[in-house]
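A quick aside before the break. I want you to see a complete sequence-to-structure record at least once, exactly as it would be stored in a machine-readable document. Don't worry about memorizing anything.
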Amino acid sequence: MGYAKSRIVSFALAVIFIIFLLVGCRQVEDAQTQETFMFSSFRDIPGITQEEIEAIDAAREEFNYFIYSALFSTESFYSAGGGVGGWSALLCEWLSDLFDIPFIPKLVEWYDYIDSLKHIDADFTSS
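That is the input. The structure line, written in tokens, reads:
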């Protein structure tokens, strides 16, 4: 008799588990209907002032590129092709497109990272 009860309890738990899975799927569908905003230029960003636009334009005239220094991690690594991969590379690509000036990701070890901060070898860092 104990075996039959354990099978009934197991079946009931399995049914409850499946119900929770189905309810969870509906919530994911609702979350996917949110809109995303993409700007093709920093000039399109709502609330940007003329002073900020002029400061960005001045920086673009003064610098040919910006270095984005990042430590090796799951966000910054060498890809199979030898380039930089991960979130840091995607961020640099997005910033380059947004500001129309190259943001170049540079991967560094911890000891080089500290030295680059001391000597201001990087314009931006991941930290």
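Two observations worth writing down. The first strand starts at residue 66 and ends at 71. The domain at 53-125 is CATH 3.40.190.10 (D-Maltodextrin-Binding Protein; domain 2). We'll return to this after the break.
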